[in-house]
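Would you mind giving me a polypeptide sequence along with per-residue C-alpha cells?
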Amino acid sequence: MSFDATRDAYDRYMGRYSDQLAVTFLSFVGGEPGHRALDVGCGPGALTQVLATGLGAAHVAAADPSESFVAACADRVPGADVRRAVAAELPWIDATFDLVVSQLVLNFLPDPGAGVAEMLRVVRPGGTIAACTWDYADGMTMLRTFWDAAHEVDPASPDEARTMRLTTERELAQLWATSGLTDVRTRALEVSTEYTDFEDYWQPFMLGIGPGGAYATSLDASTLARLRDGCRRRLGSPDGPFTLTARAVAVSGRRSS
C-alpha cells in the first residue's frame, strides 16, 4: 500500500473528497486568529491550505512521511513550515502549537496511541487536538462500493471496514479520553463529489494509491475485469455524471492545562 504519489494522482483518487472535508472538519474544530497550527499527515496539503487561509501561512506547520507529498504541500502553501516526518516523531519542541489536527491519517498509523502522544507533546496546555477518519463501514460510498464488489469476486479481499481501526465516533472518543484529553466531542461530517462518468470513478484505482489501489493493481486481468463490472453494476451502470457522498467521523479534545 502506498500514498507516495503526485498531487494530481492523489486528487483524482481521494483529493476530490479531502479538499471539501478539510473545510467541514475545521469548521467543527474551530481556531482563532494568531494561533499556531500543525497538520499531521498533511498529504498534498488540502487541510494545510485551509489552515493557512484562516491563520496565515506563517502560523501553520505540516508533516508527512511522503517526500512527494511534502513537496506538493510546500508548493501549495508557500510560507508554511512543511517537514518530512512520521506522526510518532514530530520535529518540533514541546508546546509549540495551539492546534494540532490530522485528517484521514490516524487509522493508518502503526501505533495511533504514539501518534496522539506526540500530538499532545507539541500542543500547548489548553490547546486543541482533533482528527477525522472515514466511516468505512457505511458512509464512504466510493470505497464501500469498491470493497463490496471486491468481496463478491474475492471473499478474502482486505476490506477497509474490517481491517481499519478508529473509524467510529465511539472509537475516536475512547482514544482521546484514554490519552488524557478533556472536553472530548465528536461529530459526523459529510461531503460529496461528482464524477463525469464511470471511468472517472474507476481509473483512479488503477494508480495504485491506498489500500484500494494496491489491491486493484495486484489482481490478474480476469479478476480485475470482474471487479470493475461489479463496481459499475453497484453504482447503477451510469452512462454519464453521477454524485457520491462520503461520511467521516471527527473527534476533538483539549490538553489539560
Q: What stands out?
A: The longest strand covers residues 182-195. Residues 9 and 131 are 24 Å apart (CA to CA).
